[in-house]
Amino acid sequence: MVGSGVGGDGRSKEAVGMLALHDALRNVCLNSDWTYSVFWTIRPRPRCRGGNGCKVGDDSGNLMLMWEDGFCRTRADEIDGDDQVRKAFSKMSIQLYNYGEGLMGKVASDKCHKWVFKEPSECEPNVANYWQSSFDALPPEWNDQFASGIQASLTFPIPLL
């Protein structure tokens, strides 16, 4: 049907796009050593006023980053056990970040990438000082990721067409 937004197999363009996004996130992990991949989307922050109920956005245009989709590869050695990476991944899925603030928000607004390492690297011998000088404090939920065995994290913006 022309103009209906539904493909020949009955799926909407949005559903097809979400499947393609999930496949891309899955392929990042399955075709590399990465444990998980996540796509965050920029959305207007809901606001509430008195008895008028919640409205989307506000006069100052506050935006937030919200989890859109993600994929986490199961570790073979923890299939039957307690998978700390999956727990950290699940915790991350409910996080919201202010656009332009903190690591996630600044990466999105500045359109730059940022590596974060569990241990100092040769290029960044003092990660704590580097972190403090370039972005706000390390988000507390990242401690769970590093405690689970994650060694490094790469955050980068994807330009939208």
From TrEMBL:
Pfam families: bHLH-MYC_N (PF14215). Residues 21-76 form the Transcription factor MYC/MYB N-terminal domain. InterPro entries: MYC/MYB_N (IPR025610), RSS3-like (IPR044170). The keyword Ribonucleoprotein does not apply. Keywords: Transcription, Transcription regulation. This is Transcription factor MYC/MYB N-terminal domain-containing protein.
